[in-house]
Amino acid sequence: MLVELAEHLEVPLPQSMTAGDFDDLGKNIVAKAIVTLRKTDKEFNGTSANEMASHVLKKLFDDLQNRFEEQDRESQEKIVEAIRKGIGELPEDQKKRLQDELNVDGLTNEAVRKAIVTGSLGAAFAVVVEVAGFSAYMVAMQVLATVTGLIGITLPFAAYTTLTSMMAFLANPLIIGPAFLVFGYWLTSRGNRKIRDGLTPVLVTQALANSAMGERNDEQVRDFLLVYNRSRLSASAGNS
To answer: pLDDT value at position 155?
Structure first.
């Protein structure tokens, strides 16, 4: 996945990689993903990973708003309840910030419904993410993943917010490309390049979130470097 992202974003890959190179590569990929988002979305002018995460999240909630309005009353109630329960997983200070941004006294079902319909829920979550970081982002993504099962999306949102699915997408985006049509914002063209450009910020943000929420595993990094360097050496020997 790291190599695919680097190649797509035109980040140079070293012939052999050290732990320092590994860290630099990750930083360069994040920086390029932010630049890509600025190019593909004129509404985004951020420069940080947190700003990218909050923007990605707002746009995904915007798409949820459109889908929500298509549902019958029973389905809408299920969605509202699922989101309210998900919000309950936030720490108290983050819930309070979300409540303040929504200008409500409590995060009741009615308050959540109104926030979805007016489109303010995504904007409020975006502010919380900018302040609180990736812990709030992960809760919001889990909420979205739960909701997709309630609104009839063929490919559950969770399926392409995982690192495993990123590899499949980057290897051949047209295989699962049609599944992303439910999130029309991200697709302005069926061409491979634009599909990748549109979704790369989402994938990089998710990778960042997963990384931020867990401790770095140096053993896994060493294993990666070993495999990477062996493969590069083998490729170099084959070319010669």
So the answer is: 35
**Rounded Cα–Cα distance for residues 187 and 178 (Å):** 10
The answer to whether residue 240 sits within a structural domain is: no
Q: How crowded is residue 215: how many other Cβ atoms within 10 Å of its Cβ? A: 6
Query: What pTM did the predictor assign?
Result: 0.75
pLDDT of residue 174 exceeding 80, the answer is no
Domain that residue 124 falls in: 2-232
**What is the arithmetic mean of pLDDT over 122-141?**
87
* Number of separate domains in the chain: 1
Q: What is the CA radius of gyration of the chain?
A: 19
Helix crossing, 19-40 with 49-68: angle to 10°? Answer: 50
In a domain, 180, yes or no: yes
Q: Is residue 183 part of a domain?
A: yes
Q: What was the pLDDT predicted at 149?
A: 67
In a domain, 155, yes or no: yes
